[in-house]
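Form 12-C: Joint structure prediction
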Amino acid sequence: MYLKVCKLSAKPEFIEAAKAGNILARKCSKCGALHLATVYYCKKCGSKEFEDSTIKGTGKVATYTIMTVPPEGFEDLAPYAWVVMEIDDSDIRVSGFLPKIATPADLPIGTPVKITGFDERGIVLEKQ
Amino acid sequence: MERESVCVLGGGSTKYGKLDDSISDITLQASVGAIESAGIEPKEIQAGYISNVFGVADKQVHLGPVVMSNLGISECPSLSIESACGSGSVSFREAFANVAAGFYDAVLVTGTEKVTHTGTDWTTTYFSYCSDFFYEGQAGASFPGLFASMARAYLHEFDATEEDLASVAVKNHENGVLNPKAHLRKKISIDDVMDSAVVASPLKLYDCCPFSDGASSVILCNEKFAKEHSKDYVKVIGSGRGGSPAALQGREKLTTIPSTRIAAEAAYKMAGITAKDVDFAEVHDCFTVAEVVDSEDLGFFEKGTGATAARNGETKLNGSIPINPSGGLKSKGHPIGATGVGQVVEVFEQLTGKSGERTVNDAKIGLTQNFGATGASCAVHVFESV
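Section 2 - Result
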């Protein structure tokens, strides 16, 4: 689905896309730069005209940590990984949490991961 | 544009740590310390800049008028500034800009925070609101987690070890032992750091700064005003600010903080110096990895060599570029709204012969670098003795 000019806050649609395992991105209509759908202006050329673009939520681990002292709302999950992932075939990254990771050997940098959902907290990841 | 030459005329701090007094009282105590150190009367202050993040935790926001009223100058205008852990340096910068522009001759800049009474869970959760919350805090990343992710990337990309990071904590505790106002005045070893509990791997408890209460204050003025009041002042010769993508995921590299580089470049340019001219620096070491990254982004070391430099002692009090002679956030403590102003107090004391055993020998130029969150915002200032 393409929209010439996106409506402002795209968070609800971003969340729906993540629930389906995808990333909702915005491609700048002027320069083609790709952003997560939550931006309002293009970081490269300053345009605010975008086309929505749904990208498959697969990629690999850019960096991560294993949270042993969890913040509020994650007490039941610890230890888990919080991950910055690089989305395949794009230069965008997105963050999420990956349950059941206890040691660094479980998740080396570069490990293929995928988005499996978005619960009331954030993007949920799994190893591919 | 012709600018007024801006000077730090006096500085005061409470002890950093767990404090019993209210946020209003510690803010006033630090302010009175700065006023007395400067040798001025409160009525000579023309504006007040208060930096604070979580005044709500001690039931007092809009701190400015409370401070001014209790200094007997209720008519004096004031404001509060919040930029997460970088609030103090941002407030200092705004005060600097107003004095430099000639709007005021002398102003009070006070940073303050009181959170320890709320407990670690509350504090960890509230601090996470300083991140890009939709992508980070809400999705399970605490601040130790965010910096741990940077540490993981750093250790992966460069020839550095967790022990190298630990050496930053060991050095800052060595300095903090010499600072009577430091929160954690305890010597520690590499083994102590490595054996401490993992908070967010690869960071362990002793890689992390503590939650602290505390307040710090300086008097900022033009040079004419400074000369009329004291011979103990230092000049602010460079001021720079910068920004970074709010979330780590938005950054091209995870081993550098763009805002620091932008702010440092601007501050060096204004001062007409390079990193080589700096004699010592107070930098934002909320976690050990942050000090390593800062030391590279500020230009003291090539990218990827900061950890080795720390391990080799180059950043110790007697090293080639002493970093955090105060003990830094790690040992001196991190009352987040106060930290940026506290760094200026340290530089003022260093450059006016008031820092006792932790004095950096023959120092003429000092630098402060203080950022908010994971470096989403940053301010760098350069100071010169007179």
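Section 3 - Comments
Residues 11-56 of chain A form one domain. Chain A has two domains: 11-56, 58-127.
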